[in-house]
Amino acid sequence: AYWNNGTGQSLTTFRTAWKVPPAPASDSGQTIFLFNGIQNYGTNYGILQPVLQWGPSAAGGGSYWSIASWYVTSGGDAFHTTLVKVNEGESLVGIMTLTGQSAGKFSYKSEFQGIAGTTLTIQNIAVSGTTVSESPCATNSTWTNVNGAPTNCN
């Protein structure tokens, strides 16, 4: 699912809560990414996302669930925190928060609430629009614009 922010207001928070699912029924070296994320528009746009992952990726991983925050640009650059292992059934809250803005540039952080080592900050990115997306197994999502108006997608 996604929502295109055509309001002209900056997104200030986007959080999603979900539980770590069971391991896949078969493990054949596949990679699974589940995430909520925000993506800007324009030249070299990017997506900021707290990611629940099964399997290997550029951040590492294996036959287990783990989490990290990522920022991936359309130009092919990828930045991520170190993976943190999590357990089936564990409750997670992935949140992205506006941390500052100046002269049309915005700074955000992505993290898993209460889990050390998962905070990734991006600074001074141009935002001409924002798309909000979530994985289908998210159980509850809320985003808030700068006017403080929360919106639930469930």
Task: Explain what you see.
It is built from no helices and 13 strands. The protein is mainly β and 154 residues long.
Short description:
The chain contains no helices and 13 strands. It is mainly β.
Helix and strand layout, with pairings?
Blueprint: E1 2-5, E2 11-19, E3 32-40, E4 46-57, E5 60-73, E6 78-80, E7 84-85, E8 91-102, E9 105-112, E10 120-126, E11 130-134, E12 140-145, E13 150-152
Antiparallel strand pairs: 1-11, 2-8, 2-12, 3-4, 3-11, 4-5, 5-6, 5-7, 8-9, 9-10, 12-13
Q: What are the salient characteristics of this protein?
A:
single chain; 154 residues; mainly beta; seven-stranded antiparallel beta sheet
Q: Could you give the order of the helices and strands?
A: EEEEEEEEEEEEE
Structural class: mainly beta
Major sheet size, sense and barrel closure? 7 strands, antiparallel
Instruction: Quote the distance from N terminus to C terminus.
Output: 11 Å
Low-confidence stretches: 134-154
Shape: globular
